[in-house]
Design a protein that fits this description.
By secondary structure, the protein is an alpha+beta fold. It has eight helices and 15 strands. About 25% of the residues lie in helices and about 20% in strands. The structure holds N-oxalylglycine (OGA) and manganese (II) ion.
Length: about 300
């Protein structure tokens, strides 16, 4: 085994060398990558020209795939990728950029808000793995930024740590999309996206580190008046996304970036999506338990 990892940033993000994602992984390689995830929370693998099948096979080393729920946003017959993938590209089934007013495009614009993947599900995601098949030329936007929710938690003052310790939030796509004015949801979508509860402070099962579980999907705090909850969550997100806590990933074709949704938030930065193709595809490793069951 020849896996090595170098830090990309003082608190978050590592670049992995010595693995070829086209090949099956040994147990030791998987363990080294998991240990890297626990330490860096985000790992970057460069120059990985993988197929969808290889991407899925690599993902399955880390657990079961999470099912996608937004299939009806991209209607099934219009989907470009297989069911194992979240299509976060700017493309339609014809591989051409989605029109500005396309519903799937407008929905995906929610990825510009800081979030943690599927925090709107009762058991939220563990890891996400995003493969950059085609990305805009360097310097043309479309970076993905990652914020370290462990460092953000550590930097809270003691009074705020005590205040957040036992809080439970409600998360829903209705809240995050509503923030952008995307409010036209069918009754069926409203049922699918009904709010779920998540602890605001999580404890990492391996390292024991605490982190803030924030996301643009969080729309209220149980027992709080909604405006007070929103104002408070907004302040926490501002705190947690200060530059010293953020690694900005500049994509190169063939990058695969893997992150731990339990201890990070991320967002995509703007780019000219009518001009450039950005074909990025995500698999998601399912989480293991609800966060409300966790004892902080
Ligand atoms: C995602 C996501 C950001 C990006 O795949 O979960 O938010 O850079 N993507 O496309
Ligand atoms: Mn995401």
């Amino acid at each position: 085994m020849n896996v090595s990892i170098r830090a990309l940033h003082p608190v978050i993000g590592g670049e992995v060398a010595g693995v070829d994602l086209r090949r099956p992984m040994s147990r030791d390689e998987v363990a080294a990558i998991e240990a890297g995830m626990d330490r860096y929370a985000v790992l970057v693998f460069r120059d990985q020209q993988i197929t969808d099948e290889q991407h899925v096979a690599f993902t399955l080393n880390f657990g079961a795939l999470e099912e996608t729920v937004t299939g009806h946003i991209h209607k099934r017959h219009e989907r470009r990728l297989g069911d194992q993938f979240a299509d976060v590209s700017n493309l339609g089934k014809d591989n051409k950029p989605l029109a500005r007013d396309d519903r799937a495009r407008m929905f995906n614009l929610g990825n510009r808000l800081w979030h943690s993947d599927s925090s709107f599900k009762p058991v939220p995601a563990k890891y996400s793995l995003l493969s950059g098949r085609i990305v805009p030329p360097p310097g043309n936007g479309g970076n993905t930024e990652f914020a370290d929710m462990r460092a953000a938690y550590d930097a809270l003052d003691d009074a705020t740590k005590a205040q957040v310790a036992d809080l439970v939030c409600e998360h829903s796509l209705i809240y995050s999309r509503g923030m952008l004015g995307f409010t036209e949801l069918s009754e069926e979508e409203r049922v699918t996206f009904r709010p779920v509860r998540q602890r605001l402070v999580r404890t990492h099962p391996v390292t024991g580190r605490q982190s803030l579980y924030l996301s643009s999907h969080a729309g209220t705090i149980v027992g709080w008046p909604m405006p007070e909850a929103r104002a408070f969550l907004r302040e926490l997100i501002e705190h947690a996304t200060q530059r010293p806590f953020v690694y900005a990933h500049e994509w190169r074709q063939g990058d695969l970036v893997m992150w731990d949704n339990r201890q990070t938030m991320h967002r995509v930065r703007p780019f000219d999506d009518q001009k450039y193709v950005r074909d990025v595809r995500r698999t998601t490793v399912a989480g293991e338990a609800t966060t409300v069951a966790q004892v902080a």
